[in-house]
Amino acid sequence: MSARTGRPSLTVGNIALSFHRAAAAVTRRVLEEAGHEVRTVEAPHQQLFELQGLGEIDLLVSAWLPASHGEYLTAYRDRAEVLPAHYEPYCVWAVPSYVPADQLGEVADLARPEVAGRMTKVIDGINPGAGISRFSARMVRDYGLERHGYTFVPGTERSFIDRVERGIAAGEWFMIPIWRPQYLNLLHGLRPLTEPMGLLGGVDQASPVLTHRALDRIAPEALERLRRLHLGNAGVEAIDKLINVDGLAPLDAADRYLGRVAGATH
């Protein structure tokens, strides 16, 4: 409970990745401006939903629905409210812009001898609970890429970012499972491959999930703002870049972004 406003404290949970941290920072500011004290919790994908199901998180930012995180929400969906989407994420397999599109334009081209002979065969990802990691492991099998030496290896956000930076610095031909929003797209102009089998889950809705218990405690004006809030993929990437490239703390990045938006509307 806030001593100043009498509003109850709330716990905001986000997946432990920088762009989820970016979106959660905006949500935190909305709650704080309405007089709530806010505690934050971070965890890997599946664990975060388990924590909310146990009642330890009031507001989860954000669930990618239906494809990436829908199965994690199922266990307690009847005890939670899904708010309107703040952005519309999707997963891709992408390559650096210097890899010629006429040689590598779609996922199946990875098996072409002239392409496979140049590509790095280890496909580095993030943690195995992420939707894109599940999708990518299946794609290596379903596209028959194992026969050409490709393997998918999950990792951490840090190892994933290092892999992209290292590969681009060396002019390496490599493929990375990535998503929008993610600041590396903005920084490096990564080029998505066409994926005709449709195994990457399509476009999700990135929606905050509020428990029914928290629904009775959140300030009405904060709830209304969260229902109307739409950052879009570009907005989340902009905040993510402020954090990872400009070195701002997540809340400072959210403040700068919101200040820009407010300035642009006046």
Written account of the structure:
The protein folds into 2 domains: 10-88 and 204-264, D-Maltodextrin-Binding Protein, domain 2; 90-192, 3-Layer(aba) Sandwich (D-Maltodextrin-Binding Protein, domain 2). It has 11 helices and 10 strands. The chain has helices at residues 18-33, 45-53, 70-73, 113-116, 131-142, 157-169, 183-188, 212-215, 220-228, 232-244, 250-264; strands at residues 10-15, 38-43, 59-65, 80-82, 90-95, 122-124, 151-153, 176-180, 191-192, 205-211. The strands form 3 sheets. A 5-stranded mixed sheet has the order 2-1-3-10-4. Strands 8-5-9 form a 3-stranded antiparallel sheet. Helix 5 (131-142) links the parallel strand 6 and strand 7 (151-153). The chain starts with 9 loop residues before the first strand and ends with a helix.
Number of self-contained structural domains: 2
C-alpha-based Rg, rounded: 20 Å
Shape-level CATH architecture of the largest domain = 3-Layer(aba) Sandwich
Largest sheet: 5 strands, mixed
Within the largest sheet, what's the order of strands?
2-1-3-10-4
Low-pLDDT windows of residues? none
